[in-house]
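Readers outside the structure-tokenisation community will struggle with the description of the input data as it stands. I therefore recommend that a typical entry be quoted early in the introduction. An entry of this sort, consisting of the sequence and the corresponding backbone structure tokens, reads as follows:
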Amino acid sequence: MKHPGVLMSESIATTSYTKRTYGGVSGEERSRQRRERLIEAGLQVFGTLGHDKATMRDICASARLAERYFYENFSNIDDAFEAVHLVLTTQLQARMTEAIAGVANDTPLRKTATGLTAYYQFIQEDPRRAQILLLDAPRLGHNNVRQEGSAMNCFSHFMASVVRQHSRELPHDMDIELVTTGLIGLAVQTGITWYHTGFQAPVAKIVDHNLYAWRGLAQWLDIQAERPMQATA
């Protein structure tokens, strides 16, 4: 067994080695570039093979990097999936936020349609995103609506704000989380069906099929809002 002093010396030597600059590129920058390559490779592997069939060797082969670089960044294949999923959800949130900001003063239904359009366009642009976001992530628990900061949690907050904007005084017995969870489930399941058909229908049609539920909800809220007035009339 090696003496602790030898191990410490080797650790210091390895750290110094990885921080060296080659060709004008620092060790930190090379590490960042390798991580980006691994995540891009993860998108390709997870997006085409699916989570269950993907392996560390597949990702390394796609990135053209040695296996040791994989373990410099990820502890296992699930850790790599989480990293790829985080990149996609961050991109999706940015896309939806930007789109909705453009209709900030519009009607609740228009905001919803705009957000859903951005959501489905993001999926359609790259079918690999559908495999990861629609098929694997929900099954692996990464799209938990209750998980603060997750894409679905942010989407749920957005939907709740739209519902409240439509009706400032919600029925006292209305569970807003159940409502938004159901609407999110509709968006995801519609997207899965759309993906399996090869995105045959245009995005506008997919959005309209979601809006059936939103229009029904809006009508129901209007009815609930009228009841106190009818009772006092």
User: Anything to note?
Assistant: Confidence is low (pLDDT under 50) at residues 1-17, 229-233. The CA atoms of residues 16 and 27 lie 9 Å apart. The radius of gyration is 23 Å.
